[in-house]
Every structure is written in C-alpha cells, then in structure tokens.
C-alpha cells in the first residue's frame, strides 16, 4: 500500500530524548553532539556492524520506496522566526533526499530547488494537511516523517503515523526533547518489535500501526 | 569477586518509568498494573520464551550467588510513615528471598524472621551504610539491589552499583517514577549491552561498571 507515513532511524537516548539541549547551527543536536548517532556512522573497527548487518539493513530501509519527506522546521534550520534567505539547510547543494521535502514552518518562503531532485516546500499547515500534500507529491511512494522530536510527536498525536523505526542508543542524555511525552499506552495503537543492533548497546524498535 | 552490588530484572517502560502512578497495596505498580512484567510471567502460548530462552536465563541470574538483598521501603510496603505491625510484606509467610533482606526506612522496627531463611532488617541508614551491612550479611555472596526506582537511583547516585540488568518493556506509561532521572552520561561509568528478549518487544540491557 503506497502513501504510508513512515519514520526511519529516528534515534533516542535510553532516557527517551530525541535531541539534546542548546541546539545551534553548529551543534544541531545540542549537548547530545554526535552521541545519539554513533551507531549510524561507526566503521566496523569502531564497533559498527558489517555491510549486511542489522544496522546496515535498518539504515537502508530509510530510502526504500519513499516519494517525499515531511520535516519540522528545526531539522531544516535551528532557530525561530523567519529562516534567513541564504540558509539552504544542513546538507550542502545536493541534499540526500532526492524527493520533494515539506518543511513545516510558521514562516513560509518560496520553494527551494536543490540539485539532485530535492525541492523544499515551506508550508504553514496542520499535520493532516502536510500529509495530504506530501502524498500528492510522493506519487506511488510512501512519505517519510523525518523528525525532529516535536514533529514526530505531533504526527503521533494526530494518529497519522503508520510505521516507526526507532533506535535506542546506549547513552543517557538527561535533558532535551522527549519523544515519548504524551504517548501513554502507545502500545495499544502499535505492535512493537525489538531487535538488537550490531553496534554495542543499540536496539532497533519497529512499531507498526495495528490493523 | 564476591560482594558486588547487582540489580536484576528491573523493568522499565519505553519512556523509562520503573513504576506507575498511584501505588497501593493492591496495585503496587499503580496504573502500570502488570504491564511492565508481562514478559516475566507469560507462558509460551502468551508470547513468553522457552525454558532455555533468553528471558528465562536472564530471570534465573536474579538468584545466582546472592547472599542478601537491599530494598526500598516501598517495595516492602506502599505508603509513608511507620509500617503497620501486622504488615509482613507482599510475599506471604515464605518470601522468595531466602536470605537476609535490608529494608531501607526512616521508621525502623524489629527484625522480622520469616519462613525459608528470609529475615527482614529495617534500617534508617545511608546507601553506603546499607551496602556495608548487606555485605556482612551476605557472607561469600553478592548483594542484590531489589528496587524500587528511587532506591536504584539513590545507589547509582552514590556510585555503589556494579552491575545492572534492566529490562525495557514495550509499553509507554506516561507517568510514574523515572529511573533515568539524574543519570546523565551514565554510559561513561557503565559498558552497556543490549539483547533482544523472547517476549515480543522486550530488550534486556546489561550495564557493567567500567573497570
């Protein structure tokens, strides 16, 4: 079934923080730094998994059959208020999305066409409206919900998410933005599977909306 | 090495709560009910693991080489103030501990000798003093730190814990007592291993104090 809304490789700490405190352009995860995502970028020598391992397969699923992404404004630009004209995101001139990307913001600006097939659309809309627009842009593909934490929560609150691949990293952040806040009894809406990762201490959680 | 302080099968929700809200004698885990511990008691027909599975082996380790337990007052009796004389704990006339058990309370009362080798000692002491007493009582054995949540935290704060076996259950409680509070950067003090459980969605976390 096309048009599903999927979260992939969204990583939280053991204490449930999807990002740290004190986000800046240079440290978009704040005091968490790169600790949440060590599992994602580690070489085998650094404890990372092999090319055909669990971690690699889980990462690859991020790209399978995706026709569009929705992201929160802070994944595109850390800060509040209008986004500076010269800011084109964290990903250089050819972002890795290669699809339309809806950026949710209260400060819309013109579409931004990047190299390699990524176009950013800046919309001030509800989660429901964003999903409708993203599905139209995605064609036969699914829609990826790209985060950050508050954006994932808002789509869970609206019961719009079909699948979540979460990763629990073996770090305790202590402060930041909590993914699970307001999600009491989420297990009643989602079947939950846990798979140990290759990187030591990492767990993959696969949540699938119950039929 | 004998005399280690070990936590076993201490179960938290995905959002890190070791117990729910609204604890009573009838519902000692409050609104969490039995949801945290479904993995522990499920038959194979209910999704539980086989007798030689990961979950069973992890449960069995709870009893290996233990000479004494330390528990918080609320594991023995839910409430505050003096413990009623007629209250002998949640476990009937023959509790499963079969060792000395130190109950930390600001309201000491005389030792309580139960059938099967369990004696409860009610002490108003610091974590350090409790561990020293427990090690003396444990002989050649290790000491189990039996919970609850605040008790585990207080021993982590005092850096007295050598090993923790935690279990993450696939439920989101939303409220209760948070295990991870105040434990920022715990991964610097403990190596962390994750093992998928037999029961769907369960993860075992093995934390070992770094040498």
Q: Which short descriptors sum up this protein?
A:
Dihydrofolate Reductase, subunit A, 18% helix, nine-stranded mixed sheet, 211 residues, 5 helices, homodimer
Structural description of this entry:
The structure is a homodimer of 211-residue chains. Chain A has 211 residues and is α/β, with parallel strands linked by helices. The first copy, chain A, has a single domain (5-78, 94-191), classed as Dihydrofolate Reductase, subunit A. In chain A, 18% of the residues lie in helices and 27% in strands. In chain A, the strands form two sheets. A nine-stranded mixed sheet of chain A has the order 5-6-4-3-7-1-8-11-10, with helices on both faces. The first copy, chain A, has a two-stranded antiparallel ribbon with strand order 2-9. The first copy, chain A, is globular. The relative contact order of chain A is 0.25. The model of chain A has no long low-confidence stretch (mean pLDDT 96). The interface between A and B is medium-sized, with 31 and 31 residues.
